[in-house]
## 1
Amino acid sequence: MSVTRRAVIAGSTLALATPFGENVLAQATTPSTAPSGGSRQAPGFYRYKVGDIEVTAINDGFAKRPLEGFIKNAELAQVQEAMKEAYLPADALAITFTTLVLNRNGKLTLIDVGNGDLGAPTSGTWMANFRAAGFDPSQVETIVISHFHGDHINGLRLKDGTVVFPNAEVTVPAAEWAFWMDDARMNQAPESMKGAFQNVRRVFAPITKDVKRFEADKEVAPGLTAIATPGHTPGHTSFLLSSGSGKLLVMSDVTNHPALFVRNPDWSAIFDMDADLARQTRHRMLDLAATERAQVSFYHAPFPATGYIAKEGSKFRLVPVQWTSAV
């Protein structure tokens, strides 16, 4: 079916003839300006329920990554074709960041904390969105970290050293702590990794004695169980959130953007420290989600970064949840 100019004009005329047409047109042509003079979206938070637990997804903006060199075991043309199939640009990927707030009877638990004030110019929206969702940092009781990459931990401490969540207990994967806090390993690390080791110490060194460490298969907060998903980093951890009959698989960085890595689970992002292990983990977790028809949450999926996994032969796809105004 071809879309003709006459059909477009007719459709526009019909829209303007509806009771809402005039108002919708007026709203669409009235720009929303940010303090800097640019345009801004509405606050980036989205709530849904898992049993009796209210989950709020908090968006922390995005960072653009050139496609060339991003996937270590695929040709650029293959990656560009996957982007084209997903109606995404062929030159760069906008990698989004989404953390979760778990609200259980007024007790707040965070899963990861975003970039803080150390991310790209297009990120760093986390605190504004967190407050817009009705939360305050002083209310947070527990912070659960999936792994130690900067976009997951930098929100704990501002670049001037200020602690962001003064009343929160911080708990981290024991295997992740053992790797990144090992001085000998840091000294032997290639130059390209030394900055990551130093950043981990910037964030955690002042609170080392207070940081709790958890093992896989343990409940790290009420209803939240740790799942070992290594490969992306040595101690990378996902989580199963359970409440009543509700379940949510929090996949963390098992995949980066689903259009690339859910569709092509054998591809390896440049950030995967052990590519072979990351692939095994990815297949295992995607298979689990598809078999169980479990709702999933991904850190780098398009906001609100939640949906379901469908299996299609040797590949998978993310089926987004339907947006709803009711929680």
## 2
Amino acid sequence: MTKSTLDDVLDRLHTLQAEVEEEIDRLLNEKRKLFKYTLEQGRVRFEQGVKRLQLQHRTGVWTYLRHARIRHVLTTPIIYSLFVLFVALDIAVTLYQHICFCIYKIPRIKRADYFIIDRQHLAYLNFIEKIHCTYCGYVNGLIEYLREISARTEKYWCPIKHAQRTPDPHYLTERFVDYGDAGAYKKQLEALRKEWSKIKQSTTDCTDHD
């Protein structure tokens, strides 16, 4: 099949994305040296004396509370009231992918890849700020995790592009068949259900195809 202009553009985009990832890794390594920390099996390790320097920039809890804006205080209970719902959703989708992805032979997702909870190690944050940052890290990681699960599910069950493009479609939509192309859908559905070479990190169990 002859490659379209869009295919060429997507190929160049993927190449650029790989270069961007390499550049981000390079910059992260530079920042780690600048701020004197390393990662050991995913755990942050600061050089000796760095935490003492960070403590000089920490705002005490009582000072923090005295200067808190009223709108922040009033809306905090609303933000944290969602925690139970987020945890319930996390449990539900994790069970879903462990059960259904194995049945469908969809590569499962490494949950740990999406939950990076590390800001609590920063000594310049007080106890309340650490709670806020931990919560934000969890919820945003959960959303990324859900997006990847939903993307793989959509690719399996309904790999058809929309008639109108959404503001930020997930990356697997590139592989979907065109809206209105009934012939391509019927011909390519089973192949699309088995083709997972373009996905992000995943586990390898429960994915062997018949």
## 3
Amino acid sequence: MDYRTYLRYHPDENGYFGEYGGAFLTEELKDAMAEITEAYHTIAQSAQFVNELRRIRKDFQGRPTPVYHCERLSRVNGGAQIYLKREDLNHSGAHKLNHCMGECLLAKYMGKKKVIAETGAGQHGVALAMAAAFFGLECDIYMGEVDIAKQGPNVTRMKILGTRVVPVTHGLKTLKEAVDAAFEAYAREYEDAIYCIGSCLGPHPFPLMVRDFQMVVGQEMREQFRDMMGHEPDVVCACVGGGSNSLGTFVPFLDSAVELYGVEPLGKGDALGDHAASMKHGTPGIMHGFNSIMLKDENGEPAPVYSIASGLDYPSVGPEHAYLRSLGRVQYDAVSDEEAVRAFFALSKYEGIIPALESSHAVAFAMKKAKEMKTGSILVTLSGRGDKDVDYVVEHYGFGEQFQL
């Protein structure tokens, strides 16, 4: 594989990354997706669109976000040096705004009046609510009742921004059900609305679009680390739920010698229903309009999943992740709830940075990897800040006194 030309051929014209991806749609939605695909390919080559997006990223989002050396955290782990790409400092507190501004700019180009989306941890919902307010669009966000209860601050933020938060009350009432409900709403309203999926998944062209909008993360961090250190990092890692922050991180590094690691949620353990580690325990399958690796129950249906991090509890993974694993270019590991919470407190107490529980999975992996490596450097995408998680963490874990940091 010549990764220098990777973006030219992936995905192919039908939205496939090798055997993964595609668009499995009702007849009603095929025309809607074709309209989005045509519009995206047109504006992606438009200097006016690109320049407007660059202006928004600089003046509204506050990009570029910095790369930061965790000197104290590195010292207590006694191994390789840990660095963070601070997406928690992106406006809205997470990486999600990178693709939400692009999707809403696309919606305006297409003449749509409303954006529709799902959210788990609420970060995508908040980011889309901000983007919709910026562009003057209506916004409906579908969110499972379980996640609404866990992510109260983000629900409040969405409502303040003028968004309608629609509770999802069926099934496990988490992210998978929120995606179901959002797709159903889009099928009813596609003439006036656009669906803004929150990760690199769903039917083509969403895995392509979200990846492209998120590549700003990896492009910035690669250049920043070179400027800071004069060479590439040894390891780059990011958490993986659906896969937006991680693919945005990995793809700009594909043509390098850097080791790439995606970190999934192992939750409470390896039993089905106790985790959301699709890569570790899943098999090929189709859901939400795309073919990838997914967790299945005994009937071959999407299995119940769990993670302390609401943004990671999804029973599948973006098709490009499945493809990159099949090529052997990206490796995947899993981190438990306990390891993630320990990392949450470690980064908070040693560096003064409170991470999102999603991002804490990547930090936990970096802490373990640093001890194994003993020397070298690990660059972590800190995909979001933990303001949304502090009440939940303190309620269930106190202030981390039980962890030996």
## 4
Amino acid sequence: MPLDLQTIQSVVPHALREIHVPGLGERHSGKVRDFYLLPDGRRVLITTDRLSAFDRILGAVPYKGQVLNQLSAFWFEQTRAIVDNHMLAVPDPNVMVVTECEPFPVEVIVRGYITGVTQTALWYRYSLGEREIYGYRLPEGLRKNDPLPEPMITPTTKGRAGEHDERLTCAEVVQKGYLDAPTWERVMEIALALFRYGQEVAQRAGLILVDTKYEFGRAPDGRILLIDEVHTPDSSRFWIADTYEERRAAGEEPESLDKEYIRIWYAERGYRGDGDPPPMPDELAARLSQRYIACYEGLTGQPFQPASYPAQDRIIAALQAVR
């Protein structure tokens, strides 16, 4: 049975905000994931329910971490023919054990549509009158949520928690020394192949993969690896295909199954990332959870099996064999 809104809202207080696992050493924290470095060259990634948007932590969304972790595992398996990845094992719905590697210092964002409300989004910059964006010349007359003539790669730097990402052009990635030219050319080739495949899978699920973020790293043996997460509602925008054209023609926002739902809610209240964000209501967190679960079920074709809350004890038990 699908999880109803009331059930999800009842577990908002138990959502996984952080975790401490005894015996694994020092805990490190990113925007969404807590992680531990093991002495044998592995990393334990624990995907929490923290919600990051506008480069801020806005709150916690029940089952979000589970959706991200299990959906990334699905995509890592599906895309091995395109590029190797860092996944080794998934011992718990919120946990992934991965190969430790050297992350590349840029995020690779591929955009198929002009949309978005954040300060780095194509539509936001275009709506301010910019036409030369990320090194691309965009034509006049585009409307919000229009498809682009072809997918665009728009890299950014990696901002730490609480910091904004900075926009780069494709040329600046090499010019500013973030990556050497052959590596960057290969990364762009991989990113476009991943995006095309993601669009095909999304289309079969009745969804539109609008844009997405990829992260890559270098394995100890020199291979380029796909890392972090792939085609999740956190790293991507997904629209419902059946209603897209009708809503676009009416000037309405597409129905989304991703955290753009939250971004729009905050933007409508005047918040775009500067200063302290308004508190996120429990009902809003629960409604976003429903969207994430629907996205997972559509893309994987499998029913979502909610893991138990509170999550800390089950995660610690699952990691006993990883030490």
